Amino acid sequence: MTPDVVFYVAAGAAAGGLINGLAGFGTALFALGFFLTVMPPVQAVAVVVMTSVITGLQGLWVVRHAIGQNPRRLARFTVPSLVGIPLGVLVLSVLDAGTLKLVIAAFLLLYGGYFSLRSVLPRFERPTPYLDMVVGFLGGILGGAASLSGALPMMWCALRPWPKAETRAVLQPFNFVVLSLTAMLLALRGAYSTETLAYLAVAAPVAIVAAQIGIAIFRRLPDAVFRRLLIVMTFVSGAVLLLREML
């Protein structure tokens, strides 16, 4: 492994780990660009998924009390996503993944741009259990079809007036469950070769440290600022996704 390769792997792990620690999602969007420079796609995805799971464990610990306070809310998102993932894989056999990602990128940009310009964010105060289940189900489909499971839950949760710990208590476990399942499927397909594990040995420690920095920032953010962060992240995620698919 040359110094250049180590640099790209470490840089991707640092970017992905920091954003995961800060927001509870987004590792793939910020790390894959670095990883794909030095790895083939399947290997890059295998490393970024496992890195996401490892850093996600730290985030779960941070919001463990919030998760325990409202497990039904989390289940409304997570259980339907497990049904949606295999359906997303079937959708992928019919639709082109690149086209689907471009559509989602455009949607993220429009959504993030619109709400970023608003001085006051809308507040959906009342419980919406059925809408939560639909968002989780569609998130699972997007996860299976285009590895974008967190896009819709991120947008939906950003509009709820929940404290930041409660918001993260949905997003972090949701992504952790989906990515853990993805990692198991990749392992069954033999994606974790000796070379892939070597890349992971470089990426994991860097991602863990970067995630701790992100978590430290998260703990200092007011609830309103965290909601704004999610909106900005939506826009940035759309921009990164669009650029990656067009280049």
List the helices and strands and how they pair.
Blueprint: H1 3-23, H2 27-38, H3 41-62, H4 64-69, H5 71-94, H6 97-117, H7 129-146, H8 151-158, H9 164-188, H10 194-220, H11 223-246
Helix pairs in contact: 1-2, 1-3, 1-10, 2-3, 3-9, 3-10, 5-7, 5-9, 6-11, 7-8, 8-11
Question: What share of residues are in beta strands?
Answer: under 5%
Backbone shape: globular
SSE topology string: HHHHHHHHHHH
Sequence stretches where pLDDT stays below 50 over 5 or more residues:
none
Count every helix, treating DSSP H or I runs of 4 or more residues as helices: 11
**Gap from first CA to last CA:** 26 Å
Question: Mean of residue pLDDT?
Answer: 87
Fraction of helical residues: over 70%
**Cα gyration radius (Å):** 17 Å
Question: Would you count the extended β strands for me?
Answer: 0
Largest sheet: none
Seen as an oligomer or otherwise, the chain set is: single chain
Q: What structural category do the secondary elements indicate?
A: mainly alpha
